[in-house]
Amino acid sequence: xxxxxxxxxxxxxxxxxxxxxxxxxxxxxxxxxxxxxxxxxxxxxxxxxxxxxxxxxxxxxxxxxxxxxxxxxxxxxxxxxxxxxxxxxxxxxxxxxxxxxxxxxxxxxxxxxxxxxxxxxxxxxxxxxxxxxxxxxxxxxxxxxxxxxxxxxxxxxxxxxxxxxxxxxxxxxxxxxxxxxxxxxxxxxxxxxxxxxxxxxxxxxxxxxxxxxxxxxxxxxxxxxxxxxxxxxxxxxxxxxxxxxxxxxxxxxxxxxxxxxxxxxxxxxxxxxxxxxxxxxxxxxxxxxxxxxxxxxxxxxxxxxxxxxxxxxxxxxxxxxxxxxxxxxxxxxxxxxxxxxxxxxxxxxxxxxxxxxxxxxxxxxxxxxxxxxxxxxxxxxxxxxxxxxxxxxxxxxxxxxxxxxxxxxxxxxxxxxxxxxxxxxxxxxxxxxxxxxxxxxxxxxxxxxxxxxxxxxxxxxxxxxxxxxxxxxxxxxxxxxxxxxxxxxxxxxxxxxxxxxxxxxxxxxxxxxxxxxxxxxxxxxxxxxxxxxxxxxxxxxxxxxxxxxxxxxxxxxxxxxxxxxxxxxxxxxxxxxxxxxxxxxxxxxxxxxxxxxxxxxxxxxxxxxxxxxxxxxxxxxxxxxxxxxxxxxxxxxxxxxxxxxxxxxxxxxxxxxxxxxxxxxxxxxxxxxxxxxxxxxxxxxxxxxxxxxxxxxxxxxx
Length: 702
Known about the structure:
Helix content: 25-40%
Mean pLDDT: 80
Strand content: 15-25%
Low-confidence stretches: 179-226, 243-253, 638-642, 644-678, 683-702
Distance between the termini: 23 Å
Structural class: alpha/beta
Oligomer: single chain
Strand order of the largest sheet: 8-7-18-17-19-20-21-22-23
Number of strands: 29
Radius of gyration: 26 Å
């Protein structure tokens, strides 16, 4: 089988390419040339064969040329996986004309270009199969996804129409777009069932009826669908209000955990009186002149700071932000690269008692506007240029659209002033808003408290064996939850180690940095880990660097193939630690004393003895051991809520008591939260109090 995969540089497209490469050669197409190189290397690393084609799907001539080149290199294309797409988010009234055009050009026109070009070739040969990756946003209305959902709905219709037209040609065409992830999926299902009952009652059409049964059915569905969706949404809102009252939450008070649950966590010693406002001053007092940070500033100059110097820099930044009008309780979107300014601004915000809202460097206007409005942010802090993109202009656009202030750290907006003392904040109050891993929509904002997040940081540092001699390299975006706290920069600074920030994860840059800084630990996602293995084996640029100081390589964020995991120790000369975590709180690690099969084939067990992971089948019942299912965590380290803007005032956010996830929700500490990750349980032959089997997570599909 020769498969042509669009959108193959990352995400679903890259994962599809790796799977299809097991069955024959694959042709990888994407406009991201660097991402194509990484995917092609991953395919080669797994024993497959791939050709790469830089392609913009909105160009019909380029699509035809790419297919011709692929068939010339690997033979007739008899399978198509169209995974390319673009996300445009925001209210319909606020979506600009160019954003509508971009969504339609890529998601609709691009789909038609690729699908028709491939299907025409398949139809001439009388065989072939095509799958278009759609979205549940195309199955019904979703707030904030008008342009995206409309373009996907149109793509669904065009694809299925072509499938009907080619039904007798031997070519199969399908759309993959699950309804289960839709926020009103239950209402949609009820509409379908109700329509079915009415059709059965309606009987045959009267003689001479010009409407006919099929058109009446469509009218019936249109008449009943939206009212059902409205009732479903109203019921969801009512349930949220009931949960808020049950947990003692009022319109002016936010509690992220039920009071009785918080009391148990305090009594067990999981939660303490520590806060992020005092985190760095406490570390400076304990570790003084020890090196805390080795990085570059936004101008590319090397920066080395001791704990004492880092605390002073954060205090000066806090004073400058206070002078600029940022105060305790203000929410501030923080979008900075892996530079020294990220750390000083972050701890400056903590010192003020302000609330950071994390954004990744890759986020653009739609995501940033969403973060500012949803969080009710007062300001956006960014750099002038990140990865050659003009973030100064981007911040100005966001500020003009939302009314938030924008600060560019290159302009030194935060002058030195009186340092002052760290703010007095509630340990169980809101510390920051972290990002979830959104798929079809913009990322959700996850509220984390000082108490629950610092418990995760402390336990992660202990499990990972961090200490004053640890030198931790961060090449993933530092604002992401993984390099932030698992154990990440926070775990390293809590333990007295050194944080080394790298701006480029490529082996040619990272390997010499490991040698120069004597790095002992770093964390990667699987595609990067496989790229490092490939570079080390191929002897490319930087491959000759001395990596003998590297003791632990963490891999997390997705399934790491066991065949690649086995290569880490012999080729990189370090131990492998697999990690599974989510912004909502649960974090799993493999341990040093785990058997080799668990380290290579699972992502470990939860950090707390009171964390549990249930693996549920499609019907919600506990899955049998080693059978795949959905993970369902509950325990001491999971957040209770997602952040929403209250109405009618967007500047006064509130926390909802139900996480908005694709598979359901729960009340923190009183029932189970069902995750969307496919996994299977692996029994570990030991028990931990209170007499629960420890369960390792072994992902089967991401």
